[in-house]
Sequence to fold (140 residues):
Amino acid sequence: MIFFILINTVIFIMLSFIHVYWAINGSLGKEDVIPTLPDGKAVFEPGIVGTFAVAALLGIFAFVTVGDLGIYNDYLSDDFIKYATLAIGILFLLRAIGDFKYVGFFKTIKETLFAKNDSRYFSPLCLYLGLSSIAIALIQ
Fold:
């Protein structure tokens, strides 16, 4: 499980840094990760505060995941880390399933650039993070 814990931690840190980059007005890849309507209009416009919040949450996910190594045992109970990791896994599984319209494996709008990227990269990554986090929580 150490391998999955470390891989997930690195993924969460990288995703957190990407969101910080976007929050401070970085633009590389930004247009490819926002769900769009078939006419190309964005479904929503993420703001700076929301993007920083996502970055912070992903950083917390990294903190919790590395906690599965037992490095916080003096400060946090094993049960807290276990259930937090389980919650992270469930959250990412729900994201992989999606909203049945714009995101996830069961989306109905499939021809936009975001939808193609979501099917190719984002949803499989969420599925991996969901299943591996649940496995980490249950096997630890």
